[in-house]
Amino acid sequence: MPDVEEAVAAAFREEWGQVVATLIRVTGDWDLAEECAQDAFAQALDRWRRDGIPRRPGAWLTTTARNRALDVLRREAVGAAKLREVAVLGRDEGPYDPEYDGDDSGVEDDRLRLVFTCCHPALPIEARVALTLRTLAGLTTPEIARAFLVPEATMAQRLVRAKKKIRNAGIPYRVPPAHLLPERTTGVLGVVYLLFNEGYAATSGAELVRTNLCAEAIRLARVLARLMPDEPEVLGLLALLLLHDARRRTRVDAAGELVTLEDQDRTAWDRAEVDEGAALLETALRRGRPGPYQIQAAIAACHTTASTAEDTDWADIAGLYGELERFVPSAVVHLNRAVAVGMAQHPDAGLELVAELERSGELADYHLLPATRADLLRRSGRTAEAVVAYERALELVENAAERRFLERRLAECRSV
Amino acid sequence: MKYVLLICTPVAGEELSPEEIATDPRFTSYIDEVRSRDIMRGGARLRPASDATTVRVQGDEVLLSDGPFVESKEYVAGIDIIEVADLDEAISLASRHPAALAGGSVEVRPVWE
To answer: Would the pTM of this model clear 0.90, i.e. be above it?
Structure first.
């Protein structure tokens, strides 16, 4: 019966994080929670074949996992007090009632607790990412290891250490209090954004498995947007990811070569993602509390809504980068603004901003600094100077696809 | 949970005595807070790193060296033992310690219980 398998697979994608989250709250034991969740999904395959697919698969799975946890704890003869605690805490959800069609908001809170705990700033950033993928998204340890190009044993150890620190250091399992919420939310969004970028940077072949990370990041951002509908930055992040993802498939051609935004086939961009991203951005901006993700999404929207590269509103983009710089005063943002200014006004205006950065000594080893300079010189018709800048960029570049792109540009300039 | 706060200050920083700390206005709010919340379980102000002696044993030989076990820009100037609900509470208190506010740092270590 393939439809049962499909239903279990769908429930896994939708409900895994929630089942684990509730079980962690109920038992206080991360490993036990994962084990019991796994067991509940395994049972679902048999039981749903026999009894039919329950109306609320999530509630069925949570109840089944909780009963399993009680069994395990009884067998391990943990103290009666602890058992009572688990049984009482479990009663919040009540027994599984197939007719119940009400509000699951308490359960959603569990998932939010889990997100904030996985992304707690006392954990190293790699651990936050791995833990989020494992417990919230339900990826297996080998899958996460492959996605981050590390040996499985390394990833397993990273997860064990993180869970140990949560337990031993007393990292709380809760949604942070109001005064900590903005800061911690930024941290959570940072983890999801990093996850997306890991996938986005992957371009081909052996790295293909990593592109799944984009889908996972979007899925997590959707969960966050549902859990925190009043946080405009959460919506801004989801919008940003969708608008980037819409262009993902056109960034590389059939031969695996990098295609710049200018040369991408705009008709191949994912329209549904563009539209959804633009609508989310609008909703977020209406709240009147702009932030770095909303601004970046607005920049991405400027690109995706231009029907041709020439139609791009670079003046608007330059203004948005100026605003972004107020929130994130980083050299990389400044460099992006230089590109936008160069495109909006004249390449020389962009070159002036690049020169500022060069004088500051920041980004001295970053290949995109000379690469940007080279591109603006090329557009300005100063090809001899562009050649020198491309050569410098090639000394610094590491990614193979980017290297080949710079080599092509260099060859073009030399042949002028 | 119990935590030890390792209060680290820059090597070249000022050396306040316990008496000076007790009356220093920068410490007032921190001291008032730990008192009023009754979370302090012990602690000590330590003499500077220059007064430290480090003991090592190699084979049968006891090796002594002057100063702390690692040379760094900061040294442990004191410890506070506190009892609070969780790491977030410990971090919140640590972030208000005068040493953390004055260019030093506070390492939060859970007590192994």
So the answer is: no
